[in-house]
Amino acid sequence: MPADAFTELRPLLFSIAYRMLGSVSDAEDVVQDAYLRYHRAEQDGVEIESPKAYLSAITTRLAIDLLRSARVRRETYVGEWFPEPLLGDPAAPDPAEASAESDSLSMAFLLVLERLSPVERAVFLLHDVFGYEFSDIAAIVERSADNCRQIAVRARKHVQAQRPRFEASRERREQLADQFVAALSEGDVSGLVEMLAEDVVVSGDSGGMSPSWPRPIVGREKVVRLLGAIARQLAEISGVRVERAEVNGQPGAVVRDGAGNLVNVFSFDVADGVVQTVRSVIARDKLRHLGPLADIGELRAALRAEGS
User: Fold this and answer.
1) CATH 3.90.320.10 is right for the domain spanning 170-307
2) Sequence-distant (≥ 6) Cβ neighbours of residue 42 within 8 angstroms
3) What is the pTM of this model?
4) N or C: which end of the chain has fewer CB within 10 A?
């Protein structure tokens, strides 16, 4: 297969692997491994009618195998586990036809998928998100087409019961994200009260490193106090800034140090005109793919120095 043909298929393969695994690095490894296996099959004289079908099958099977081992690792994970965030361009257009894809990329949706078994997740994603026929999915997961239909029905019920709701108005979502960034940047969080749901939840994935929140913070008053404390800390460290960002297809924010190095990523769930959930990813291993990272130790030292 010519390199340009693989380049054309790579976004689809990565989309499947990332939604299966919730890990950018693992998804990239799976896609590269799938390509190498495809290349070896060609060299061995295997006739491949459809590169897309062949590579989709390999990618999905590799992801299923890796997900089974990842589940064991996540059982001993320290603190909350979130998918590795993907950043996009907040100024990019958001065509209506891409909205479903954005929702299926969101942190909230990926966390719902965590409750499915690896095969259930594969069947649901391939059929409901990527539009594969059950006959093709059956060959990929090595089940009958009828069995795949039953798996899809079961998985769909689980997903629909827990599926996150998103604000229909993209404009409102972006407005709330802008307000969040302004509040943290300016240190005035009083304006956040009206934009937060009464039972808003804030949680973080630190991978066990400090600073960390051992459990979610629930309730508007507690969340406003927490965000106020964060805003004051950010204001005390020279050069640290909060910027709007597109996080997993949804409006969000990032924090950077004075050199532009990444500190952490915030994602929001917005529904009914207010912020329902705020997630913060500060775990170093979850952010390395996004570029240079800030030295958290230096930031803490700077904060202590400012407070002394």
Assistant:
1) no
2) 1, 48
3) 0.89
4) C
